[in-house]
Amino acid sequence: MADIAIVWNPQLGYGDLAMAGADLLANDDLVTAALISAFTEQGWWGDDPGDPIGSKISTLISGPADGAPNRAKAYLLSCWAWMTRDGVCADVQADAQWISAGVLGCRGVFTRPDGTKASVQFDWAWAELS
């Protein structure tokens, strides 16, 4: 299903809407949901305390670099857990690793109940964000 695309800008470290001519660019709705879940901070004013939206991924910017890939993977799996719990996905996987000095690469793979897959990838340039 199509949804408004959120395009990740690794140089600036954020996602934004993009245009396709006079229209907003469309994308896979699962990718949009994954980006919103990963980059909405937990505890925002509209959160349901019993089922919060968002992640703690932004805390990696000010935290120690040691263990950051493991923490990023845990944060991503946590913020995407609703997808399997609500039946949107049959499986959700996350990976995070240093891809170059000061750049943490994160990836999610989402398997729908019908077996089709969607993926999202983004990089965190720590030196530019801290």
Summary, kept brief:
By secondary structure, this protein is α+β, with helices and mostly antiparallel strands. 25% of the residues lie in helices and 35% in strands.
So what's the CATH class?
A: Alpha Beta
Number-wise, the strands total 9
Integer tally of domains: 1
Number of helices: 4
Rg, Å, rounded: 15 Å
Approximately how much helix is present in the residues? 10-25%
- Quaternary assembly: single chain
Order of helices and strands: EEEEEEHHHEEEH
> Which geometry do the CA atoms define?
globular
Beta-strand level of the residues, as a percent range?
35-45%
CATH architecture: Roll
Largest beta-sheet details: 3 strands, antiparallel
Pairing-aware structural class of the strands and helices?
alpha+beta
Question: CATH topology, what is it called?
Answer: Nuclear Transport Factor 2, Chain: A
Strand order of the largest sheet: 7-8-9
The low-confidence parts are none
Distance between the termini: 36 Å
Nearest-integer average pLDDT:
83
Give an account of the 3D structure.
With 130 residues, the protein is α+β, with helices and mostly antiparallel strands. It has one domain (2-129): Roll (Nuclear Transport Factor 2, Chain: A), CATH 3.10.450.40. The protein contains four helices and nine strands. The chain has helices at residues 29-39, 68-79, 81-85, 126-129, and strands spanning 2-4, 6-9, 14-17, 19-20, 23-24, 26-28, 91-100, 103-111, 117-125. It is globular, with a radius of gyration of 15 Å. 22% of the residues are buried. The mean pLDDT is 83.
